[in-house]
């Protein structure tokens, strides 16, 4: 390890007279090495071919899968990922995309997440956190997300930018759901109704509010509870009263159509 460190460091120091791109690559390689040194063990780097042998079959060296280039030993979940398991298609590969699309076809089982929406990237990182918590990390697979030295590649940095955007949007949605908790609803053959209570939308609060339709660009309207004492929110142009429902009513009937 020390020899490798010295080699990388020497090449990188020499790199101050070479193009910036080289220096960035050296920086990444050095940070991967420093992280390995700090954790006391070198980062294991697997090729895609090597990873593909870890499918849990009798002649396999083990049972692995990868998410965003991070490889995990999932032997403890053999009943899911081993041969005959419902999620065997994840074994021996990085099929990050399928974790959020649910497309388990050959085309869908890919690590290309470049066109996923910010919310999907957040969901993918939730899966990554799940594997980090429940399974044993093995190393990194060389390819889309990590280079040959195990250092992050550009595609990973791009995903991280999208992740930040997704986290920002999620925080905004969470803040919004506190301002506008969802209504309770029920349906029967005679029609339905929406109503508010101090726990509706799983937001426990001191006020119940009144049902309003909330219009959000790009999606259909939904019923939210609005606190009429909060002028800032109750007067929003994005909110509409239910037809035939008194302004102060905590419950509104819905038509059968
Ligand atoms: C995007 C779609 C889905 C993905 C990516 C997905 C993925 C997974 C994965 C990876 C596991 C294993 C977790 C572990 O290691 O413990 C799992 C377990 C499970 N999934 Fe899914 N799943 C999806 C949709 C569904 C749906 C729609 C259902 C039910 C209708 C479902 C039912 C289950 C059940 C019951 C288990 C636990 C099985 C057991 O404990 O034996 N999943 N899922």
Automatic annotation (TrEMBL):
Domain of life, per lineage: Eukaryota
Family matches, as InterPro entries: Cyt_B5-like_heme/steroid-bd (IPR001199), Cyt_B5-like_heme/steroid_sf (IPR036400), MAPR/NEUFC/NENF-like (IPR050577)
Signal peptide: none
One GO cellular component term noted in the UniProt record for this chain: membrane
Domain Cytochrome b5 heme-binding: 46-142
Family: Belongs to the cytochrome b5 family. MAPR subfamily.
General function of this protein: Heme-binding protein which promotes neuronal but not astrocyte differentiation.
Protein name stated in the entry: Neuferricin
Species per Swiss-Prot/TrEMBL record: Denticeps clupeoides (denticle herring)
């Amino acid at each position: 390890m020390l020899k490798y460190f010295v080699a990388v460091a020497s090449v990188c120091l020499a790199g101050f007279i070479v193009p910036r791109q080289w220096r960035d690559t050296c920086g990444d390689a050095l940070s991967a090495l420093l992280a390995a040194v700090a954790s006391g063990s070198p980062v294991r780097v697997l090729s895609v071919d090597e990873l593909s042998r870890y499918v849990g079959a009798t002649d396999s060296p083990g049972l692995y899968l990868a998410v965003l280039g991070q490889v995990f030993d999932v032997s403890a979940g053999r009943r899911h990922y081993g041969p005959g398991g419902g999620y065997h298609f994840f074994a021996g590969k990085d099929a990050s995309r399928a974790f959020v699309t649910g497309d388990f076809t050959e085309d869908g089982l890919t690590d290309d997440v470049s066109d996923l929406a910010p919310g999907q990237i957040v969901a993918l990182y939730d899966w990554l956190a799940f594997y980090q918590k429940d399974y044993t990390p093995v190393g990194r697979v060389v390819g889309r997300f990590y280079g040959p030295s195990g250092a992050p590649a550009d595609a990973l940095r791009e995903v991280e930018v999208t992740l930040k955007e997704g986290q920002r949007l999620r925080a905004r949605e969470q803040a919004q759901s506190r301002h506008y908790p969802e209504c309770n609803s029920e349906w029967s053959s005679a029609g339905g109704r929406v109503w508010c209570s101090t726990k509706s939308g799983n937001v426990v609060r001191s006020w119940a509010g009144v049902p309003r339709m909330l219009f959000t660009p790009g999606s259909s309207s939904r019923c939210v509870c609005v606190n009429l004492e909060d002028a800032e929110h109750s007067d929003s142009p994005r909110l509409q009263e239910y037809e035939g429902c008194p302004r102060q009513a905590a419950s509104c009937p819905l038509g059968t159509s």
